[in-house]
Design a protein that fits this description.
The complex is a heterotrimer of chains A (about 525), B (about 325) and C (about 300).
Chain A: H1 2-20, E1 26-31, H2 46-51, H3 53-56, E2 61-63, E3 70-72, E4 75-80, E5 86-91, H4 111-122, H5 138-142, H6 145-148, E6 149-156, E7 159-164, H7 171-175, H8 185-194, E8 210-216, E9 220-225, E10 238-243, H9 247-255, H10 270-275, E11 279-285, E12 288-293, H11 304-313, H12 316-322, E13 328-330, H13 353-362, E14 369-373, H14 385-398, E15 402-406, H15 410-416, E16 425-431, H16 438-445, H17 461-472, H18 476-493, E17 496-509, E18 512-513, E19 529-530
Parallel strand pairs in A: 1-10, 14-15, 14-16
Antiparallel strand pairs in A: 2-3, 4-5, 5-7, 6-7, 8-9, 9-10, 11-17, 12-16, 12-17, 13-17, 18-19
Chain B: H1 2-29, H2 34-39, H3 46-56, H4 62-74, H5 88-123, H6 128-141, H7 145-159, H8 182-189, H9 194-229, H10 232-239, H11 244-282, H12 287-297, H13 300-328, H14 330-335
Chain C: H1 3-13, H2 16-29, H3 31-48, H4 50-53, H5 91-127, H6 129-143, H7 147-158, H8 162-189, H9 192-199, H10 204-212, H11 217-240, H12 252-258, H13 267-295, H14 297-301
Helix pairs in contact in C: 2-13, 3-5, 3-13, 5-6, 5-8, 5-11, 5-13, 6-8, 7-8, 8-11, 11-12, 11-13, 12-13
Chain lengths: ~525, ~325, ~300
């Protein structure tokens, strides 16, 4: 019986598609890779989120399209208690889950779905905590949620209260992140009853603007607009992800009209894409920073003057030209300019090899030999670490510093570079998660991160006090001056040579309208339209 | 013949064990802690790290891990991918038909053009035809195929827009896979234009992947034919006044086929290797691209079992080549 | 009847010099082979005298000249005849230095795999029996992995570098020689001249290496030529996938891979190394053909 309905709905859908081909608006997005799965919470890759959490799901709060501002999502409103330890969310009523060939919801979204979506990640004894072998809740754990959460209480069907162990200003922003996507508890119960729990990762059901139709592994993902979407039906009817891993080929497909939007163009092609009369190229600074971290525990890099002198020896413009091919902007602060609290007052170290040479001599440093660590992989904040290291090597040579380039395989590199007694300066970077400055400053430069993500091994009391205080203040207006000051302290102390922020380009067909680039780096197609 | 087949099948067992040792050993000796790679720049607290190591069994001695692995293999459990958390065997089986389809078409392309070209070149040895065919064959297999693929895409897909840039079928066609082979599925779907679209998507990848085998086969056929044409029995047959076609087609070609079939058999590995590049360039959703991805992500279970499965396939093809030997040259069969 | 046995006898009689002269006579008849040899010698000269010939150092970055087109194009610079790459290095110089790497890869890989493979193949093909079976199973294990795939995994295991890439490629190629040698030996073994030699009491090693091996050379030489090119191409493919010689090494494959993102904007950056590979490999293969024609004792007669 069930099989018959499934078949019938599948047939219905196919005819719907067939009948609709003439008038249906289809947007084809050439995505850069395959999603790891369709349950966003166990994963950390943006590629996965673009295919799962963004089209299929909603969260209690959402990032406004094109900004890092947090706006209501499945929660219509929320309020914080005076001590900053309790957040109460009023849930939106009448929100429909997707009706698909494999699931028909019998009820609207309610508090049970919220409790389910978080408990499964939080409680080790939850039946969904290990729903398939090797599931790990990387982001939930990574954002320190287990330590932060004290309780999640269902007050009534449409009210949920989060109780925290300590006041944490960035918490609301965390809830807008992908791992906080709300899944259907009813669908989960059905899968559990059928003994097919792992299907939640392959046949997703959400409340989002698009519903999942089909996935042909490593080839095509198909979505259809959710006709009962609480935010109104999308203007495009079908959304197709054509998975095209090779960047050059992706651009060729775009030029040939085989897809409408294609991310991550190779920097060298941007000029030709801009020149193409059928294409628009949008651009924005990415939420990232690439840096060279000295080991501030190692002599002579424990001296501020030495670090400053080396910073002055680096010709950033040459790096931007050669490594980023113009797809980067010089970094002066450890946070990107699209982030609130960015301190535009800080003055960058000027490129001046002569002065640098003199500073080194004054500091009593001569015949300095050092290592530069170059990452073996391509990252948004550093498209070619090897090339960057070569350029820096040449720059250092001009001020009499002999640099040797070393590299390790990626896992080794990450691990070895953490060591407090690491020899040399390391090239690395960071991409932000939730648009909060704490996500850069505390994670990368805080005292507790020494021997870990703090690759400069830099623990400096005045800086640490500023960022710790900022974390406890309830509003962003109050936090902002503290972060601005922290950036100034950072620049004076120069634990890193801040190198660049990538500039993200998004080429698309001129037919596409209303696309907004996301400062957080995701690719969202809600609210986008396409001309016939 | 049956006994021959049985003995060859029996011989596959040690080979298979050898392959499993190689696949397992190589991967487990890779530097880098898999759990570290999974967490990337973000890194995990040490307890969580330990927990994950335990969960995947990396804390146990390597021989124990191997036997656990082998035991699970025997039960048809090829492990769970780190990346997708799905069974590796399922992933492989989903993607494998795409690779088979591409490799088969490429081989067909190479054989259809390569053998006749080689035969005619041998018969007309030294002619302009011979020289140009052999020249082309040389250029063919001297080609860095990823470069060749990009050039073809730029010329035929971007500039002329004759063929699609990548993918297996036009996106307007949507049907559930039945066999996994797009050419067959598109016919079964009954949708107008689907088959043509699938063919158009196959052309460039086929040519790119078939280029090296084409060169090799044409050359090998020519060289084998030349040897055979010089042999006593062919000369005898010629002297007896048999028609040239009969001499070339039956006597010579049959004997020349032994090295040619060896070559074709050996080319299967080359084809799968080429598929890694071709699939990468054309975004072809096959096992080659999947393996590259798995290697670069250190997805241990996928690399391990992927190697094993791919090697298993090559092994089977080698068996078939051996059997064909037996069919073509009875002396070898009886010689065993 | 014993035409071939007669050849063996002839060979014994004639001196080494006449053999070489005869070889050159046959080799030089093949115009393609001579052309190949000329190009190959040219590449060898480039490789040996790279320091003198190359106009620039291979790693010198001219910051005033990123992505300069070749001299004949608008915007070209006479200093950089074939243009510059993305960090302002002279492509011509890099290609000249790169010839060292490509030849080196080819020579090393072929020497290792040929020596190993032919020896193993001869013995197993001649003696057959259980040892043959065991060896062939080991070869089957190697052959069962697509070359590039095993090379990729090996390189990932050993760490991406040119040396490791060469070791991996050589290991992967030797079973081809084993199989070819063995198959050829097996089909030669039943021929009359072998029987004749056996009857006349020729020793085993001599029979294997002197009587049989020369008659198996044709496919082996074709294979050696093939594997020289395959070695260069596989190394390039490994580079393309980020697992071969590491930048800034001016290895052609790595140069090609390094700059492939410029394929539509700066065609020369991608095209030049591609052409260099193609020409060199073509030349080697042409030579291989000439060698085969000149060496094969039976083809000579026809």
């Amino acid at each position: 019986m069930k099989r018959v309905t499934t078949l019938a709905s599948a047939l219905l859908f196919t005819t719907m598609l067939a009948a609709g081909t003439a008038s249906a608006k289809t947007l084809v997005y050439c995505s850069e890779g395959s999603p790891e799965g369709f349950d966003p919470a166990p994963y950390t890759a943006g590629t996965t989120f673009n295919a799962s959490s963004r089209p299929i799901y909603n969260r209690l709060v959402e990032f406004e399209r094109g900004t890092t501002k947090v706006i209501p999502g499945l929660a219509e409103s929320w309020e914080a208690s005076a001590d900053g330890l309790e957040f109460t969310f009023k849930l939106r009523k009448g929100v429909k889950f997707h009706t698909t060939s494999y699931f028909t919801p019998s009820r609207d979204f309610n508090a049970d779905d919220v409790i389910f979506s978080f408990s499964r990640q939080w409680k080790k004894d939850h039946p969904w905590n290990q729903y398939t072998a090797g599931v790990a809740w990387e982001y939930f754990d990574g954002m320190d949620m287990p330590a932060l959460l004290k309780d999640i209480v269902k007050v009534d069907d449409y009210t949920v209260k989060f109780v925290l162990n300590r006041p944490e200003a960035p918490f609301i922003a965390n809830l807008a992140m992908d791992f906080a996507s709300i899944l259907s508890a009813e669908y989960a119960a059905k899968l559990e009853a059928d003994g097919k729990k792992d299907m939640i990762n392959q046949q997703p059901v959400g409340t989002g603007p698009f519903m999942f139709v089909d996935y042909q592994k490593d080839a095509v993902i198909r979505y259809h607009a959710h006709s009962d979407y609480w935010g109104g039906k999308q203007q495009i009817d079908d959304l197709i992800f054509a998975i095209t891993t090779d960047a050059a080929v992706r651009m060729q497909k775009l030029k040939a009209g085989e897809c409408h939007v294609a991310p991550y163009p190779p920097p060298a092609e941007i000029a030709s894409l801009k020149a193409d009369p059928n294409l628009d190229v949008m651009e924005q600074e990415g939420l990232n920073v690439g840096y060279l971290a000295y080991n501030t525990m190692q002599a002579p890099f424990d001296k501020v003057e030495v670090r400053k002198a080396l910073n002055m020896a680096i010709n950033k413009q040459a790096i931007l030209d050669a490594v980023f091919q113009g797809a980067g902007s010089a970094a002066k602060n450890p946070i990107p300019p699209t982030m609130w609290s960015y301190n535009n007052e800080t003055v960058d170290d000027t490129y001046d090899p002569e002065a640098a040479k003199k500073m080194l001599a004054d500091a009593g440093v001569s015949d300095l030999k050092m290592k530069i660590w170059a990452m073996p992989v391509q990252r948004p904040y550093n498209p070619d670490a090897r090339k960057m290291a070569e350029l820096i090597q040449a720059d250092f040579a001009k001020v009499g510093v002999g640099a040797e380039i070393v590299s390790y395989e990626w896992g080794e590199y990450l691990e070895r570079s953490k060591a407090k007694d690491r020899d040399g300066a390391v090239l690395l970077g960071w991409t932000g998660d939730n648009g909060d400055p704490d996500n850069f400053l505390a994670v990368l430069l805080g005292c507790s991160a020494v021997g870990g993500n703090n690759r400069a091994q830099w623990c400096y009391k005045p800086f640490e006090d500023l960022i710790q205080k900022a974390k406890t203040l309830p509003t962003n207006d109050q936090r902002e001056p503290l972060y601005a000051e922290a950036q100034k302290v950072f620049k004076e102390q120069a634990p890193w040579a801040t190198i660049a922020h990538s500039v993200v380009f998004m080429p698309m067909s001129k037919k596409v309208s209303n696309y907004k680039m996301d400062p957080l780096g995701s690719h969202r197609f809600d609210g986008v339209d396409i001309a016939e | 013949m049956l006994r021959f087949l049985a003995s060859r099948l029996l011989l596959l067992v040690p080979t298979f064990i050898g392959i499993s040792i190689v696949a397992f050993g190589f991967i487990r000796l890779l530097p880098g802690d898999p759990v570290l790679l999974m967490s990337g720049e973000r890194s995990l607290p040490p307890e969580r790290h330990e927990e994950l190591l335990r969960q995947f069994g990396f804390d146990r001695p390597i021989w124990e891990q191997y036997f656990t692995y082998l035991w699970k293999l025997l039960q048809g459990d090829f492990g769970i991918s780190f990346k997708t958390k799905a069974p590796v065997l399922n992933e492989f089986l989903t993607l494998f038909p795409a690779t088979v389809e591409l490799a088969f078409c490429a081989m067909l392309f190479a054989v259809i053009f390569g053998i006749p070209a080689g035969v005619v070149a041998a018969v007309r040895r030294g002619s302009v035809y011979d020289q140009s065919v052999m020249g082309t064959a040389l250029v063919g297999y001297s080609m860095p195929i990823f470069w060749w693929g990009l050039l073809l895409i730029i010329f035929f897909s971007v500039t002329l827009q004759w063929t699609p840039v990548s993918g297996r079928i036009g996106l307007v066609y949507f049907f559930k896979p039945v066999t996994g082979f797009m050419l067959i599925d598109s016919l079964l779907s009954g949708q107008k234009g689907a088959f043509t679209s699938a063919v158009r998507h196959l052309i460039l990848p086929t040519v790119v992947l078939g280029t090296i085998p084409l060169g090799v086969i044409a050359r090998q056929t020519r060289s084998a034919m030349l040897e055979v044409l010089g042999d006593d029995y062919v000369r005898t047959a010629r002297a007896k006044g048999l028609a040239p076609f009969r001499v070339i087609g039956i006597h010579a070609l049959r004997n020349a086929m032994i090295p040619v079939i060896t070559t074709i058999g050996l080319q299967v590995g080359t084809l799968l290797a080429g598929a890694i590049l071709t699939e990468t360039i054309f975004s072809w959703p096959g096992v080659g691209k999947w393996m590259i991805d798995a290697i670069s992500r250190r997805d241990y279970p996928s690399v391990q079992s992927g190697l094993l499965l791919i090697a298993g396939v090559v092994m089977l093809v080698n068996l078939i080549v051996d059997l064909l030997y037996g069919l073509i040259d009875p002396r070898i069969r009886h010689g065993r | 009847m014993s035409d071939a046995a007669a050849t063996v006898a002839d060979t014994r009689k004639t001196g080494r010099m006449t053999l070489l002269t005869e070889f050159w006579r046959y080799f030089s008849e093949n115009r393609g082979a001579v052309a190949g040899l000329a190009v190959f010698l040219f590449v060898v000269i480039l490789a040996v005298f790279a320091d003198v010939i190359a106009p620039h150092a291979p790693h010198e970055q001219y910051r005033d000249a990123f992505l300069k087109p070749p001299v004949w194009q608008v915007g070209g610079d006479y200093r950089f005849i074939l243009g510059t790459d993305a960090v302002g290095r002279d492509i011509l110089s890099r290609l000249i230095y790169g010839s060292r790497y490509s030849l080196f890869i080819g020579v090393i890989v072929v020497s290792i795999s040929l020596t190993l493979g032919v020896t193993i193949g001869l013995f197993t093909g001649y003696f057959r029996g259980p040892l043959d079976n065991a060896v062939m199973r080991v070869m089957d294990v190697f052959l069962s992995f697509p070359s590039l795939l095993l090379a990729l995994v090996l390189v990932a295991l050993l760490g991406p570098s040119l040396t490791n890439a060469m070791i991996a490629i050589a290991l992967i190629q030797q079973p081809h020689y084993v199989r070819l040698t063995r198959a050829a030996v097996m089909s030669e073994m039943v021929k009359d001249y072998v029987t004749a030699a056996k009857v006349s009491g020729v020793g085993r090693l001599r029979l294997m290496f002197v009587t049989i091996l020369p008659n198996c050379m044709a496919p082996l030489i074709v294979q050696a030529a093939l594997s020289f090119s395959t070695a260069i191409l596989d190394a390039a493919a490994l580079g393309f996938l980020g697992m071969g010689a590491q930048p800034p090494t001016p290895e052609w494959g790595t140069m090609l891979a390094d700059s492939r993102e410029f394929v539509t904007r700066a065609w020369w950056v991608v095209t030049m190394p591609g052409i260099a590979i193609l020409v060199t490999v073509l030349a080697i293969n042409l030579m291989g053909d000439g060698l085969r024609d000149a060496l094969d004792p039976r083809l000579k007669r026809s």
